[in-house]
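Attaching the record inline, Q. Sequence:
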Amino acid sequence: MKRFFYWLAPARGIQYSFRSIAETANTFTLRAVIMGSLLLSFVFHQSALGQAVSGNIVGTVDDPSGGVVPGADISIIDVERGIHYSTTSNADGNYTQTHLLAGHYRLKVMAPGFTDFVTTVDVQVDATTRVDVQFQLGKSETAITVNAETPLLKTDRADVSTTPVSYTH
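Structure, as predicted:
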């Protein structure tokens, strides 16, 4: 350690005059400032490399029986900033959304035949938040279209028509 700081000290055997003492002091100060700056830049540089500013949301989408749901649409909305992210679940039912700023998010997962899953999620800096989704079966909707036409047979009256009908053979 003594050898490392040796270059900071003035050289030995120098005849000191007022001028040489001032030059030596300036040299010593300059060396100390340079060494301190290098040391501080190294310390702050190393700590800056470890800083993270985002988090992640991951999860698995399952149906009521526990089977995975591939291709589910996932919508993630940053409530505070209004930023919208979209992704889909993969073949294994897993989804991942990375690089989310810390904050409050609204997560909505949709798939045909299931009710929409909606929840709120808090994302922390340099953390992964897991939100597993288990869908509930949706209501099946059947549309019936009725066309109103004049019936050929009147069932509400017992009238007999007296209009002759002609048949040609």
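The first strand starts at residue 54 and ends at 62. The chain has a mean pLDDT of 78.

More tomorrow.
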